[in-house]
Amino acid sequence: MFKTKITPLALVIASLSAPASADLIISEYIEGSGYNKAIELYNNATTDIDLSEYSLQRYSNGSASVSTEITLSGTLAANSTYVIVNADTRASTDLSDKADLLDSVVNFNGDDAIVLTKDGSVVDSFGQVGFDPGSSWSEGGVTTANQTLRRKDEITTGRTTPDAAFNPSEEWVQFDQDEFDGLGSHAGNGGTTPEPIPEPEPLEPLVCGAEKTLINAIQGDGSASPLVGTLVELEGVVTADFQGDDQLKGFFVSSLATDIDANPLTSEGVFVYFADTDVNVGDHVRVQGTVEEYFDATQIGSVSQVAICDTGLPVAATKITLPLADTTDLESFEGMLVTLEQPLVVTNNFGLGRYGEVELATERLYQGTQVALPGDTANAVETENLLKKILLDDGSTVQNLDPTAYPTPGLSAENTLRTGDTVNTVTGALAYSFSLYRIHPTLAPQFIATNAREDAPELNAEADLRVASFNVLNYFNGDGQGEGFPTARGADSEAELIRQEAKIVSAISAIQADVVGLMEIENDGFGEFSAIASLVNALNEADSANQYAFVDFNVDQIGT
Q1: Sheet strands (E) in 131-268
Q2: How distant is the alpha carbon of residue 223 from its chain centre?
Q3: 3-state secondary structure at position 82
Q4: What SS3 class is residue 301?
Q5: Other Cβ atoms closer than 10 A to 342
Q6: What's the pLDDT tens digit per position in 205-244?
């Protein structure tokens, strides 16, 4: 006798998979540059439909649980479309102007699944729920990353098995990134699919040593390139390779020795956003592409060709030091291979586990208001802090990478990275993104554990009151009665909340503090079913001898 094992994922999908009417389908998917994201829905029926019966769900990074969901509203006429565009104000106005609805539910990436439901039953889906493909689903020349995809017009029924393997080429036609022209219209009803953009004519092969645009001319001596939008051919040496699907999908190139200028304000390096031609550090390459400012970082994008002219060239890093004289000083090194040969201190490791990021500085830094009164004095401290630090970024686009990159060979309970630990040398490519300069290391930094955890705190013998703070990491308790999941920022289910709560209660109880200040707890008032009431009740149930009470402000929410 054989037994079928039902996994939690299977149970989740089973609750979604019962097919419903296919009147409404996903007809266009836009995963454009930056915040340009959109979904087009199409009423495939001959009558109007009530959108309030439908919900759109996003499942992020291979999750089997809904990450974000929105219930639609209004009425959609037969053979009409409904366009949902990312609500982020940084999305292109050419895109947002086409929106019927602005909402963050469509702030997806190429590895996120989208599910359309009607009264809780799946009517259509895009991607594979519960499976993370890396950066995208790619097959048959169609990819879900950095492209516009339109549903083939002969597809008139939805894909109601969101857990099934997903091949985008079966039902979708690929168009250029940031192609919005067709958004808001769909032929549908078995019509004829427009021909995709034809393949370009073969390009003239690149000729190494021919006339070129120098990298320092591309970078210019200001904060942005003077050649944005220009098609260029450049030559240089590959100094850092991050072409992997789970990396930056590109490589860094620095000027040939004979091309370096004497202007200290112009960088001699640039990032090339291209992974189709495999390159290695030390390769002399010629690149044809367009100069772009991608969120204020100069790069070569829309690359059409890369030729390898030579291999095995020496690569040297340019020395930089902290603190900086000015926050703009690093602009003249953007895209270059750099090295800091000085003791640096880990001053922030908050993004280590999720993003592979660590802030390094000349000393441990503190918020301005921790060491100075709010106002000009505290602001001056913050400005000074900016001059003293740099972000170390592992160059991976995967969240919650396992093992975590730092410290070598990977983060663990026995191999930790604490604030106050040090490193004497950091070498890598200098980049700019998310408003911060960062180094993507080409050599593994060797951290020194110089701030070991104390076995026990040193207590003041005269003290009789213990005060502590505790981050409960988004303790959201649903409706406080076992329902209301998934929550806005916390647990996806009651079972997950129970697990989270048990850990919090155990930790706070072990601290044995008289007063505890809580961080990241749901701001839902102080009533019987509020998050603060639920947590305090759980603490008191666990320890009848030491009973806590919470400060009740008698308001629905703190703040405005």
Answers
A1: 138-139, 142-143, 147-151, 172-175, 231-242, 250-254
A2: 24
A3: strand
A4: strand
A5: 14
A6: 999 999 999 999 999 999 999 999 999 999 999 999 999 9
CA distances in angstroms from 442 to 58, 91, 139, listed in the order given: 35, 33, 31
Q: Please state the separation of Cα 210 from the chain's center in Å.
A: 39
pLDDT at 200: 62
The enclosing H or E element of 538 equals helix 531-542
| pLDDT tens profile 516-553 | 999 999 999 999 999 999 999 999 999 988 899 999 99
Give the tens place of pLDDT for each residue, 192-211: 445 555 666 788 999 999 99
For the ranges 5-14, 268-277, 415-424, which has the lowest average pLDDT?
A: 5-14
Q: Token match 């902290």: residue?
A: 322
Residue with tokens 């554990």: 449
In the block, tokens 């009147």 appear at 23
The Cα 65–Cα 496 span in angstroms is 11
190, 153 contact by CB (below 8 A): yes
Q: Given the DSSP bridges, would you call strands 467-475 and 515-521 parallel, antiparallel or unpaired?
A: parallel
Give CA angle at 308 (305, 310), nearest 5°.
160
Residue type, 398: V
Domains defined along the chain, listed by start: 8-175 (2.60.40.1260), 215-313 (2.40.50.140), 329-448 (2.40.50), 467-542 (no CATH)
Which residue from 365, 348, 344, 345 is spatially nearest to 357, judged by alpha carbons? 348
CB 477 within 8 A of CB 525: no
Distance CA 310, CA 316 (A): 17
Contact 362, 344 (CB under 8 A): yes
Distance from first CA to last CA of the chain, Å, rounded? 62
- For residue 127, count other CB atoms closer than 10 A to its CB: 25
- Residue 139, strand partner residues: 142
pLDDT value, residue 15 = 41
Quick one: angle between helices 531-542 and 494-511, nearest 10?
60
Neighbours of 496 (CB within 10 A): 15
pLDDT tens digits for 78-107?
999 999 999 887 788 889 889 999 999 999
Q: How far apart are CA 552 and CA 350, in angstroms?
A: 30
- As a whole number of angstroms, the distance between CA 481 and CA 474 comes to 18
> Cα separation of 215 and 271, whole Å?
10
Q: Which DSSP letter does residue 201 get? A: P
Give the Cα-Cα-Cα angle 531, 533, 534 (nearest 5 degrees): 65
Question: What one-character-per-residue DSSP string does 419-432 give?
Answer: TT-EES-EEEEEEE
Which residue, chain included where needed, has tokens 């969901």?
69
Task: Supply the DSSP symbol for 294.
Answer: E
The span from the CA of 172 to the CA of 124, in Å, is 13
User: Which positions ≥6 away from 221 have C-beta within 8 Å?
Assistant: 263, 265, 266, 332
CA-CA distance, 421 to 417, in Å (whole number)? 7
Query: What DSSP character marks residue 435?
Result: T
In this prediction the pTM is 0.64
User: How long, in residues, is the chain?
Assistant: 560
